[in-house]
């Protein structure tokens, strides 16, 4: 399958960016074609009515339109979606055809906190449902990511590592059924 991954913060050494890299490797190992967009690559001008989307946004729109699924790896900012990612999503929601309608999405998050960014994923669910995306029932969270992600972005805690494989496989099965 052709899959897009989007996420990470604008921070050098972003845990979510690191986790995104590991997820892309795991998907490639399973034989899938992946294109990843880091936080910096998702830093677009603030959406403004009447402003034309940049060439980078047009390319991202085309990549999502051709994808069978999307993996979002999002930091949690104040129990919500970080501004740069929400801005990118808002831009993409104005572009036609809608890349969101019927798009299978896996939600992932990493945080140094004890909840692993789970509350932010709740905010993502509301936004994605509004746009008609189909979010996998289970998401992946990595708590204590400052201690529990290795330098390549793999979770070091056994239960989280097992969850990662299980969530990826369940998401791939969902995406295969839908697209
Ligand atoms: C403005 C701001 C708000 C934050 N709010 C939360 C929060 O609600 N929950 C949480 O677990 N971490 C929160 N954090 C901490 C982030 O999880 C932490 O900075 C994390 O490293 C961000 O992801 P990154 O490593 O990919 O940059 C917040 C950080 C910032 C800068």
Tell me what the structure shows.
The chain is of the alpha/beta class. It has a single domain (2-178), classed as Flavodoxin domain (Rossmann fold). It has helices at residues 15-29, 55-65, 83-93, 118-130, 145-148, 158-178, and strands at residues 2-7, 33-37, 69-73, 104-110, 134-135, 140-142. Helix 1 (15-29) links the parallel strand 1 and strand 2. It is globular. The structure holds flavin mononucleotide (FMN). Residues 8-9, 11, 14-17, 75-79, 111-113, 117 line the site of flavin mononucleotide (FMN).
Biggest beta sheet summary: 6 strands, parallel
Name the helicity range.
40-55%
Instruction: Quickly count the domains.
Output: 1
The shape is globular
Poorly predicted residue ranges: none
Give the class from helix and strand content and strand pairing: alpha/beta
Distance between the termini: 9 Å
* Hetero compounds: flavin mononucleotide
Average per-residue pLDDT, rounded, comes to 98
The CATH architecture term is 3-Layer(aba) Sandwich
Report the radius of gyration as a whole number of Å. Answer: 15 Å
CATH class: Alpha Beta
Determine the CATH topology.
Answer: Rossmann fold
Order of helices and strands: EHEHEHEHEEHH
How many beta strands in the DSSP annotation? 6
Fourth-level CATH superfamily:
Flavodoxin domain
Number of helices: 6
């Amino acid at each position: 399958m052709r899959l897009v991954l989007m996420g990470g913060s604008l921070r050098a050494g972003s845990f979510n960016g690191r986790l995104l890299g590991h997820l892309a490797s795991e998907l490639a190992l399973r034989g899938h074609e992946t294109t990843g967009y880091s936080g910096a690559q998702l830093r677009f001008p603030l959406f403004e009515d009447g402003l034309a989307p940049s060439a980078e946004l047009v390319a991202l729109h085309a990549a999502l339109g051709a994808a069978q699924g999307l993996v979002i790896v999002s930091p949690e900012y104040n129990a919500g979606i970080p501004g740069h990612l929400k801005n990118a999503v808002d831009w993409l929601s104005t572009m036609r055809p809608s890349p969101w309608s019927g798009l299978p999405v896996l939600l992932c998050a990493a945080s140094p906190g004890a909840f692993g960014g789970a509350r932010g994923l709740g905010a993502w669910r509301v936004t994605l449902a509004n746009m008609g995306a189909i979010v996998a029932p289970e998401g992946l969270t990595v708590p204590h990511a400052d201690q529990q992600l290795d330098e390549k972005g793999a979770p070091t805690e056994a239960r989280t590592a097992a969850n990662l494989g299980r969530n990826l496989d369940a998401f791939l099965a969902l995406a295969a059924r839908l697209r």
